[in-house]
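re the bet — no i am not wrong, look at it urself. input seq straight from the record:
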Amino acid sequence: MRRFLDGLYRLGGALAALCVLAILLLMVGASVGRLMQWRVSWVNDVVAWLCAAAAFLGMAYSFRNGDFVRVTLLIEAVPAPVRRSLELLSLAVATAAIGYLAWWAARFTLESWEFNDIAGNMVPIPIWIPQMSFVVGALLFLVAVIDELVTVLRGAKPSYVARVEERHARGDFSEEL
């Protein structure tokens, strides 16, 4: 199960990276297109959807690898048993909040599909298609947070803490900048 979940998070991260690459290619293509007098205003719509997709699809991977911004001032100043309780509380609150987000994202996207909402900009595409990246990303993030909650409940260190400690042990403090 661990390999499957880690693979799922890596897949989300890879899809997010591909979205960023597509943004780069579209923006360079649009720049060249403008010089050649091509109509490239549709690129803005696609880039906006890809930005959202990159953000949401990469959340689970970033979270598990300790790349999310965490305010650890309090949690690092308390004894280990209190720290574990605070981690559990934080993960429980995050599970509820992200579960709520995922529920409404899915419901909103389903309504877009049911009503056959079409993007009103330059690219007339059913809006549920780009919205699916929001749903998939939110669900992946929810699974990752529940995964961490179960890990901490079992008494293990959260992966986001372990990964940061591994980087620090190698002398890599780049995320601290």
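see?? The mean pLDDT is 90. told u. also The chain has six helices and no strands. so pay up
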